[in-house]
Amino acid sequence: MAEATTQEGTWIAKHRFARIAPRKARLVMGLVREMHCQQALDVLKFNPRRASGMISQVIKSAMANANEKEADMRRLYVVEARVDEGPSMMRWRPKDRGRAHPIEKRTSHLIVRVAQR
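Now predict its structure.
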């Protein structure tokens, strides 16, 4: 996960090439937008989807980046939470009469930006 500071008081964490389809990850990412970070982690803790574990790690990483710059951890909230599409891996599935059909294994880039309120 990468760390970068964009503006004064905002911190970014990214998980690039996450092995989950962007459409599935966007369903979970929409739950945590504009939430306080601790509340977002609580929501993700009880969410049964596979993407919730990946997204909670990204939020924890963004909080750790903010903690290194001595931010007030109780005032952190999720400013931006988005899922971008990564490259797709092409695989082939054998079918009837010697044919092959493609299977796309999609990847995602999970991006979370936190700031102080």
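The two ends are 24 Å apart (CA to CA).
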